[in-house]
Amino acid sequence: MQAMIKIDRLRKDFGRFTAVDDISFEVNQGEVLGFLGPNGAGKSTTMKMITGYLPPSSGSVTVAGYDVAEHPLEVKRRIGYLPEGAPAYPDMTPADFLDFIAEVRGFRGKEKQRRVQDTVRQVSLEDVLHQPIDTLSKGFKRRVGLAQAILHDPQVLIMDEPTDGLDPNQKHEVRTLIGNMAREKVIILSTHILEEVHAVCSRAIIIARGRIVADGTPEELEAKSQWHNSVTLTLSPGKDSPEQVREQLEAMPGVARLETLPGHDNRLRYQLYPHAARPILADVSRMVHERQWEVEEMRQNQGRLDDVFRAITA
Amino acid sequence: MKGSNLWVLFKRELSAYFATPIAYVFIVIFLFLSGIFTFYLGGFFARGQADLLPFFSFHPWLYLFLIPALAMRLWAEERKSGSIELLLTLPVTVSQAVMGKFLAAWAFTAIALSLTFPVWITVNYLGEPDNGVILAGYLGSLLMAGAALAIGASISALTKNQVIAFVVSLVVTLVFILSGFPLVLDFFSGWAPQAVVDAIASFSFLTHFDAISKGVIDVRDIIYFLSLTAFWLFANITFLEMKKAD
Ligand SMILES: Nc1ncnc2c1ncn2[C@@H]1O[C@H](COP(=O)(O)OP(=O)(O)O)[C@@H](O)[C@H]1O
Ligand SMILES: [Mg+2]
Question: What are the chain A neighbours of B93 within 8 Å (beta carbons)?
Fold first, then answer.
């Protein structure tokens, strides 16, 4: 099957500054792609080129087999887009605004009414339908933006920072909504909140200074962390002295490095890093048994996305 | 599909005027100034003639301020709020978006202009004017408003600052009005060849509008306004394509 979105050597220059620098990737049906990167990395610029708002300086974007430069309308029909900050017409009410969007999307009469009603229900806009968008809270404004993007049930949904500036409950609602739509669409969303990637994305691309620096499932990215498969171990004070314990742990073949963590009440706390992220939990466990140390905590770490993110975008 | 999208955009734009006080403020100011110009400055009664010449002869000056005020928000506001990104990623072409906005603004001006009908009634009550000439005056006025709107709209597409859009459109419109002003033409006719003077005069709103408003409907005057409008609308499209990014 052909990829739904195909981005080939995409580049965007603003004067002498290169905002997006030779980016290529493909996205398939059912994928929720998180676009990660620090501010100014080029996330929005890339999305603007995919949606046909900005012409690329070079390279191409193909959506559902249509080249954006050659068939912009075919592409725009298939995409729902939530621009950064969810702009809308502030003097309109959500009812009028969605009615307008539905008409531009080619719906008329009963079908139009049904689309608007369904979308309003999906994003829970019932209570503010007849209030000017200007007067709505940030959360509601964002929902209006989302409604506008999903009204025509697009094959491709592109959202620029969909949860930025929302409170935790609103964030949760938006993520649930995205999760519900994930299967039958291609979704690309940008964010700089890493927990979001775990919450909704099946794949993450990290970009920095206009280039892709990592691409994989959230788990794959975490595996790049130095914390990945490291073991945190906390022992109650026992017959072995701290020096002895430390020596024996360091002597284990799988352990590359040991870090002593601060512990309360004479507890001994260590962070054990493996060679090449090979699991060492079983070895550590065996050692603990043999030496009859009293364990308070023993766990293997996944590695955190933040660390990876910071390490590769710094 | 194509035509219907233009209609959808047109409807939204036109109703946007009435969603805020803009429409009412504009119409009231328009009527108020028309009245002052016609009856007070124009000496409508003192002239003792049954025509609307004083009414129409002030229209270029009325439009000089009012049309840039009407047009300044067309694109600058979309840029400022970011809704331009939404609009231009909907399945519409840039030319549909430009035409939708322009036609709505023009229709709105036509509404404001048609609300001056009491002036027409008054002159018919007082005397026996040539209503054909008056109709020609309205036609000329509407054509001139269209050209000024096209200028204002396309300058509005260059900035997100409405004040800048207003001032620059006003200056450009002034240039188009003034190039037919006797003062300017006299200045040139002192030394420039007659062909140049004619060329400058031929670019003027005044030259073409005066002829129409006196009831002389020459196809060339109509073509002048329509082609000027078309030229600026084309510029509007080009400006948008060129300057989408910021
Ligand atoms: N219209 C523009 N003109 C000049 N520079 C721009 C323009 N738009 C974006 N940039 C620059 O391009 C870079 C990438 O911007 P953007 O794509 O918005 O980043 P992100 O969305 O990842 O925060 C930034 O350094 C930004 O300043
Ligand atoms: Mg951004």
Answer: 72-73
The total number of structural domains in chain A stands at: 2
A40 in any annotated domain:
yes
Q: What is the 3-state secondary structure (H, E, C) of A19-37?
A: EEEEEEEEECCCCEEEEEC
* Cβ pair B20:A91 closer than 8 A: yes
| Residues on B contacting A at a C-beta cutoff of 8 Å | 1, 5, 8-9, 12, 15-16, 19-20, 81-83, 85-86, 88-93, 244-245
| d(C-alpha B31, C-alpha B58), whole Å | 12
> In which domain, by residue range, is A129 found?
5-222
Report DSSP letters for B87-147, one per residue.
HTTSS--HHHHHHHHHHHHHHHHHHHHHTTHHHHHHHHHHS---HHHHHHHHHHHHHHHHH
Q: Tell me: do A16 and A164 sit in the same domain.
A: yes
Judge contact between A212 and A25, C-beta under 8 A.
yes
The residues near A134 (Cβ < 8 Å, ≥ 6 apart) are A90, A91
* Distance (Å, whole) CA A273 – CA A15: 46
Could you tell me if the ipTM is greater than 0.90? no
For residue range B6-34, list pLDDT tens digits in order. 999 999 999 999 988 888 999 999 898 88
Domain boundary among A172, A203, A222: A222
- Domain-wise residue ranges, chain B: 2-245
The Cα–Cα gap between A157 and A149 comes to: 7
Query: Cα(B184)–Cα(B171) distance, rounded to whole angstroms?
Result: 15
Nearest CA in chain B to A90: B81
Gap from A69 CA to chain B (nearest CA, Å): 13
- Per-residue pLDDT tens listing for chain A (314 residues): 678 999 999 999 999 999 999 999 999 988 999 999 889 999 999 999 999 999 999 999 999 999 999 999 999 999 999 999 999 999 999 999 999 999 999 999 999 999 999 999 999 999 999 999 999 999 999 999 999 999 999 999 999 999 988 888 888 888 998 988 888 899 999 987 777 888 899 999 999 999 999 999 988 887 777 777 888 999 988 888 888 888 888 888 888 888 888 888 888 899 888 888 788 898 888 988 888 889 989 988 877 777 777 777 77
Alpha helix stretches (DSSP H) within chain A:
43-50, 72-78, 94-104, 109-122, 138-150, 168-181, 194-200, 218-222, 242-250, 281-291, 305-313
CATH of the domain at A259: 3.30.70
- Cα B242 to ligand 1 centroid, rounded to whole Å: 17
Question: The tokens of A119 are what?
Answer: 């979308």
CA A191 / ligand 1 centre spacing (Å): 15
Q: For residue A45, which atom of ligand 1 is closest to its CA? A: 17
Task: List ligand 1's pocket residues with C-beta within 6 A.
Answer: A 14, 17, 19, 37, 39-45; B 245-246
